[in-house]
Design brief:
Blueprint (H helix, E strand, L loop, with lengths): L1 H20 L9 E3 L4 E4 L4 E3 L8 E7 L4 H17 L4 E7 L6 H13 L6 E3 L5 H5 L9 E6 L3 E3 L3 E2 L6 H13 L2
Parallel strand pairs: 4-5, 5-6
Antiparallel strand pairs: 1-8, 2-3, 2-6, 4-7, 7-9
């Protein structure tokens, strides 16, 4: 009898633990300041961290020229960008290798044009702190961050295709909008 009670107790505890693993994003989502930066985009326009204050929410998508998943999701991101603009939400790309040299920048521009991308894409200089202290630590592409108007990253980065993680993205957007 003791053995059956012990097994039932163990099963009950396991079920409660497992329920937590499969649950939606927890109530408490971290807020971390996005690093300060001042870079140029692929067209040569200066973009800084001040851009976050112009929008309620900014989605920042890091990609590189050799990432097939990054390039394949660009039309989906363009669709989201067009939808987001109605709600004062911005989307910015960061072509992490486009600032390495003129050849990489030209390739990035060709990719963006071919995929019909109209959202702004930053071309970071690998010699700047933004690249050295933040971008160089990104371990997988594409990686996407959700940033509020105060320049805070909301939650952990989304690694991989954004559209496949729309529930998480939407919950973070809703969380920011709920705090307004």
């Amino acid at each position: 009898m003791k053995r059956i009670v012990s097994i039932l107790l163990l099963l009950a505890m396991s079920a409660s633990i497992l329920a937590g693993c499969g649950a939606q994003e927890p109530e408490l989502v971290s807020k971390t300041p996005f690093p300060e930066f001042s870079e140029v985009d692929t067209e040569g326009t200066i973009v800084s961290h001040d851009i976050f204050s112009d929008y309620d929410i900014t989605i920042v998508n890091f990609w590189n020229n050799g990432c097939g998943t990054c390039i394949a999701e660009m039309p989906e991101l363009e669709e989201l960008y067009q939808e987001f603009q109605k709600d004062n939400t911005n989307l910015i790309g960061v072509g992490v290798d486009s600032g390495e040299n003129e050849e990489q920048l030209t390739l990035a521009r060709e990719i963006l044009k071919e995929k019909g991308v109209t959202y702004q894409n930053i071309s970071p200089n690998p010699q700047n702190n933004f690249y050295k202290e933040f971008i160089s630590h990104i371990t997988g592409y594409p990686t996407t961050y959700v940033v509020d108007s105060e320049g805070n990253i909301i939650g952990a980065p989304l690694v991989g295709n954004v559209k496949a993680q729309m529930d998480t993205l939407q919950s973070r957007i809703d969380r920011i909008r709920g705090n307004k």
